[in-house]
Write a structure and sequence with these properties.
alpha/beta, Rossmann fold, 6-stranded parallel β-sheet, 3-stranded parallel β-sheet, binds (3R)-3-hydroxy-L-norvaline
Amino acid sequence: MQEKILVIGACGQIGVELTATLRKKYGSENIIASDVREENALLVGTGPFVILDAMNKGTIQTLIKKEKITIVYLLAALLSATGEKNPKLCWELNMESLQNVLDIGVEEKLKIFWPSSIAVFGTTTPRENTPQKTVIEPTTMYGVTKYAGELLCQYYKKRFGLDVRSVRYPGLISWKSEPGGGTTDYAVDIFYGAIREGKYTSFLSENTYLPMMYMDDAIRATLELMTAPKEKLKNSLAYNLSAISFSPKEIAEAIKKRIPNFEISYEPDFHQPIADSWPKSIDDSVARADWGWHHEYDLEKMVSVMLENLKMKLVK
Ligand code: VAH
């Protein structure tokens, strides 16, 4: 059967790259990109785009019926740093959009992808090699919405048989589209600083280890999960997903190998306590066992690809 896919939140850091990959795999005309914002320049001319508010159930359901959508990727959300500045909006947007899509999913028999995050873990969670099942007490509103969302998805799976799938993304690093409002965004901003000014001031302290992943790994993981046989997916909450863990000091040293005069300084700000509440590293053995996940980008390969591509992008 020909899949017809709607991406909600297609103009964000994940959405832009996910939409491009889906268009390659399923054909551009079968992927409708949508966002509450204007179309991202990287998407213009690559396939259908509509302005869509993830909070408006009626317009979403009308579009899904009209276009005979079979799969929805719901990416719209406020991330950790922005969420702490506006916790009420973070809860409303992240939860209402998910509730809308889950309810429509039951009525229209959709398959759904919805991203969780390692932000579900809090200060009471073991921080090294954090297991799939462990103490989960998020301390940010973003983390609260992601864990509440996981539990909501689990309920809809069990109560209504809805096929909704999810992963706990680590910090994602990409050069095509820029992140926005995240605590891990320093790991992208540092490359822009290195190329543009030869220096960067990190808003996290030098030894703040966080789980990270290059975007190509994250997109491949997402599609592998969504195409895995349902019977293989034994884990009812979102899957832990992991690739690399590093600190600002370590990524700066990797950049210095390629840009010897690069200088980093540290001015921890409100992002620091958020980062300190998250794991340093993640155990993703359940994802590796259930659906064969494996990462391909380590720190050195990611830094090389980021610098090579950003230099071309920024010198245009
Ligand atoms: C954030 N990039 O920083 C997101 C992510 C694990 C972090 O969820 O909020």
